[in-house]
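Exercise (ungraded).
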Amino acid sequence: MSNNNSPLAIVLASGGMDSCVTAAIASQNHRLGLMHVQYGQLTQQRELRAFCDIADFYRVPDSLRMVTSIEHLRRIGGSALTDDTIAVEDARAGGSGIPATYVPFRNANLLCMATSWAEVIGAHRIFIGAVQEDSSGYPDCRREFYQAFNRLIEAGTRPETHIEVVTPIIHLSKGQIVRKGVDLGAPLQFTWSCYRAEEEACGTCDSCMLRLKGFREAGVDDPIRYA
Amino acid sequence: MSNNNSPLAIVLASGGMDSCVTAAIASQNHRLGLMHVQYGQLTQQRELRAFCDIADFYRVPDSLRMVTSIEHLRRIGGSALTDDTIAVEDARAGGSGIPATYVPFRNANLLCMATSWAEVIGAHRIFIGAVQEDSSGYPDCRREFYQAFNRLIEAGTRPETHIEVVTPIIHLSKGQIVRKGVDLGAPLQFTWSCYRAEEEACGTCDSCMLRLKGFREAGVDDPIRYA
């Protein structure tokens, strides 16, 4: 476990399962700064509650919690997550193509915010729970995107600044993520994944299906409630 | 001049001189979408007025104006532009080092926002009025930063999306920028550059000094008022 002398790392924490497991991994060797961004997604109140529960679990001090809100992704629209007129589809059978829940360039927006914060507070690593293979097929979840982002940081920050984005679960399957979370004692009972609902998870949207698949593969019961 | 069949380009328009001249350049061959971001900078009300005047001048329809506000850069702090406790210095003599007005990774944040918008509205170019040589020495004004950003867009957007960030004035001197603006009929009288004040420009901050140097080199009178 980390202690007061451990280096500081920022974790982008949505309140979902992947970022919770990512926080668990980061906490092994780092003090945590947790960043949570509301961008007008349908379930943002529920996700904020999940974030706070997870931050409390890891005893993150207020000075290292950055909860912030951006309006432009909702106003820009183009995604079922932020536009009420675009339906959140049921999970796709084949997994090809880019789903309606893709928020254009969202992870780049979030990583820029985290990089600004990292440069000011002196964090040298930014953890993000992106998942490539066993994911929704978003272009900003691919390894090459994160490699390009690290080159961008190198080019666009102070010469003495060295910040690296790390993606510790990018090549794990959902089952491996659940297993890793259980092994590390991550508080999966606090996490929220459903794109549609805030009281009981729908169990049928892309995000619920991927989560349920993960628990099934890991042979573990999902501790949250489904409709 | 562009017409209704011209391709659509987004211009990041702060309300300052450089982005105004950049809009003038873009307007030669493109319909304009103008994006303006308030990030808690001291003079943001004045800059918004300048933006609106410039957008009116170029007859940009409301549907192609995106005025939006982000709070995280102010809350993150670390810059004299967004933190009341850090002084806006007078212009530096030597021009070495990175000044206190540097907002960490600001241009990356702005370009991500513009990229999200471009992907939704189908714009293929994003113009930004970054200036490398004759500038304040910000790391995110260097050509290599924009090259890295274009690679990031390629890696992080839909495969069918092709968006390019272009920096038409990056190698111009401030004098050349003023001259270009005058030649293209850019409404420089509406622009605002001062980091400190909103009524009359201070004439002594970095940004005022660079602006005044530009008008002097171009042999043109600056149409705005100074204290």
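Further reading is listed at the end of the chapter. For now, observe: Strands of chain B lie at 8-12, 31-38, 65-69, 125-127, 164-166. The radius of gyration of chain B is 17 Å.
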